[in-house]
Every structure is written in C-alpha cells, then in structure tokens.
Amino acid sequence: MEDKKGVILVTGSCGRVGAAVVKKFGADYHMVGFELLKAFYASASEELVPCDISSDESVHQALTHIRNFYGNHITAVIHLAAYYSFAHRHSELYDKITVEGTRRLLRGLQSFNVDQFIFSSTMLIHEPCQPGQKIDEQWPVVPKWAYPESKVKTEQVIHEERGDIPAVILRISGVYDDHCHSIPISNQIQRIYEHQINAHLFAGDLSHGSDFMHMDDLVEAIYNCVDKRKELPPESVFIIGEGTTYSYEYLQKRMSALLFENEIHTHALPKPIAKVGAWVESHTPFTKGSFIQPWMIDLADDHYELDISKAEKVLGWTPQHSLDKTLPIMINDLKNDPIAWYKKNGLHMPEHIRKKVEEGHHVHK
What we know:
By secondary structure, this protein is α/β, with parallel strands linked by helices. The chain has two domains: 7-177 and 212-240, NAD(P)-binding Rossmann-like Domain (Rossmann fold), CATH 3.40.50.720; 183-208 and 245-303 and 323-358, no CATH class. The chain contains twelve helices and 15 strands. α10 crosses α11 (338-344). The protein is globular and about 60 Å long. The protein starts with 6 loop residues before the first strand and ends in a 7-residue tail after the last helix.
C-alpha cells in the first residue's frame, strides 16, 4: 500500500463515471470517494465517505476525515457529483447541488495542498454548429437549458474560488459503453426495437447529430490529466469527445440494420406537430411516460461536431473507440438478453414484448 502515488478524491464515486474512474486509478492511488449514503455500494478499490455536497456540515466532516486519515496533500480531486435530469427543463437542484456544491467543496479544499481539481462539464454549454463546422474551446457559449446552464455557472465558480488550486475543465460529449448506458442512444434503439411509430419520425433535420464518446476513452482522458498535472497551466479547458458525429438518419439505419437486417425509413416532422405529440404521450393515463418531452423538441436537431485537437496535442490523448463500431456490441447485448438490457438501461419493457421474450420468441427477427 505504501508504494501508492498519492490520494485521489472522487465526488460522485458510485456513479457510472465515478466507478470507472475509481477502477482505473485504484491500482496506483489511494482512492477516496465522496457519495450520498443512499448510493453506497461495496468497492474494493476505495474508501467511501458519506458526503452531501449541498450541506456545509457534511462537506466539512468529509474533508476533516480526509485530513485525519490521509493528511493535507491531495493529488487530484475529480469532481463528478452534479444534478442531472431529462425529466425537467429547469430545476432548483442544478444551483443547489452542481453550482453551490462546487463552491462549497472548493472553499473547503483551500486548507489542503491540492495538485489538481478536475471538473466534468459538457459540450452542451456551446452553441450548436452546422455539419462540417467543428466546436473548439473558443466556440461561443450559449447553453440552452438548465443542465448546461449549471455547468457554465460552475465553470465560473471554479475560476472565482479555486485559489491556488490548478483546475482542469473537461467539456465532455455524451458518454456510452458496451452495454449502451446512454439515455438518448438507448431510447433510440428501444423505439426501433419495439417498432414504435415514433421510430419513423424525427423533429428536425435528419442530417444533424451529436458527438458521443466511450466511457473507457473518457476515463483515459481524466487519467492523462492527472498524469500531466505538473505540465498544465493553472486553468485548462479541453473539449473531449470522439470528434466524429453521425447523423440521426445514419444511426437510425445502422441500428435498424443491426436489429432487423434492413434499414428503417425516417421522416422529418415539423416541430409544432412533434410538440403536440410529445405532450399527448407524456399526459396519456395508464401508460409509461415518453422519454421525449415537449421542451426537447426545440433541441432535437442541435448539431454538435467537436474539434478535439487540443486534448490530443496537450494531453497526448486520442479516443480508441467509436460509436459506429460499438453499436454492434450494444445491440448484440440487447439481442442476447433483452430483459437484462432494458433493466441495465433503465427502460420499461412493454408487457407484450416481455411475454414474447419469455416465451423464447426473438423480437428482433
């Protein structure tokens, strides 16, 4: 144990990204995770410390624990704890948890010797672009709903409150893994798999799309940040993603071909009609509410194509995966055990499909 390089604190360490980060760093560093008590689960790679970052007293007690057991020096703080929800366009929890929680944490860290503070921001703080354009770190910042707005506010808080602690802000694209674990992608696959009418409709320009990245590549980027912490300036910002954006139409055809060996036909739907449809779906009694909310329609065809050259050059990081090459793995996982795949991705399986699966019928054929 004594040959470990130092102490790394991960907030939100029981989340998907947090757990992957802990696993990656655990062999080399003493890992301490801050997490809400209700999120605790056993982990051999870290010590878990109960911490609610929306509470002054909780943050103070958690940091006191670190000082008492690990001393005053922290190699890196990887700050992942934040509020996130597709259910509402606005929520006071964004300010309470993401913005003010970060302020509270940074103020508490001022009495420590911290080599680096890493914050997980989002590419969504930027104004969308047109196909062929590339969003870099200087691209206009125009957040369009509460989640990216909270990240913009938090980036400013880090600038104001970091003191002498070097900070890295990672503006991350959508994250997926081999089992999917991406809300937009899993819902798109679900619509096609279930032969929903919605699967043939899209509220916007079918040639537009969004950048995604594999969890393993994100964790590698974070690892490189820590590894190069002494070479980076006091404040660094990096756009992190795959740098290749697939259009909604391409993904539709790709998913359909992998599921059914034929390509689905998708039709553009005017936004006003799509909003009415989304409202009706989300307010229909006795049905599972639709993922697509009326407020999402305005954002449906926002296009995000990323310039990741700064991260490649400065961090020596290049993504090793692509969404296109991972889709077959995701969809094979679905085909092999549909019920487990739905559960892993937090999706509701309609009773008629569950019955077919349990009876041994292959829905995908």
